């Protein structure tokens, strides 16, 4: 839900930067990979040391590449299935690094509940994305859910950054909410696809899309 509103706003903001990079010969795929590496390195280097504020600043600065690469692809007319695949795959690395690094920190300080909550957010986030990808590959619609990637990232990063500034309880509240919301989203998607499957019978609407030719346009992939 948050993705839909945020993307339109940030696309307008990031368009000048996207145009500048394209003029310099930088491609969308390069921005995708570099941004993901930045997120992974920042999260794994800073969060396990308890550097929550500066870690969040670093991670957030690289996360904007997730919006920048899509804007660049649209401006250059290079939106493709490959770009959508690469972007979605790199997103999983970034998400895993953020919640994995938080889980590592909480394990180190022996905070069992926060460790478990970070793991739940990590696992449920991955399942949420997989459920949609698998459903759509089988011909079902699966875009429902109270907590998608945008909510997980904003909620976790804002709370972690504030925790780094000394705000009490904010990180625990956020992780509890995200863990519950992400789990609910997984259940929602399972039930949503089951309802569609039961409506059309055992065979289902299996119609996986055929592989696209290189450069064939496709809507940008999202969770």
Could you explain how this protein is built, in words?
The chain is mainly α and 223 residues long. Helices cover 74% and strands 0% of the residues. It contains 8 helices and no strands. The chain is flat. It starts with a helix and ends in a 23-residue tail after the last helix. Residues 210-221 have low confidence and may be disordered.
What ranges have pLDDT less than 50 throughout 5 or more consecutive residues? 210-221
Strand content: under 5%
Please, what is the average pLDDT? 87
- The shape is flat
Query: Oligomer, anyone?
Result: single chain
Radius of gyration: 18 Å
The chain-level structural class is mainly alpha
**Share of helix, binned:** over 70%
In DSSP terms (H or I, runs of 4 or more residues), the helix count works out at: 8
In whole angstroms, the N-to-C terminal distance is 10 Å
Question: How many runs of DSSP E, i.e. beta strands?
Answer: 0
Order of helices and strands: HHHHHHHH
- Main β-sheet description: none
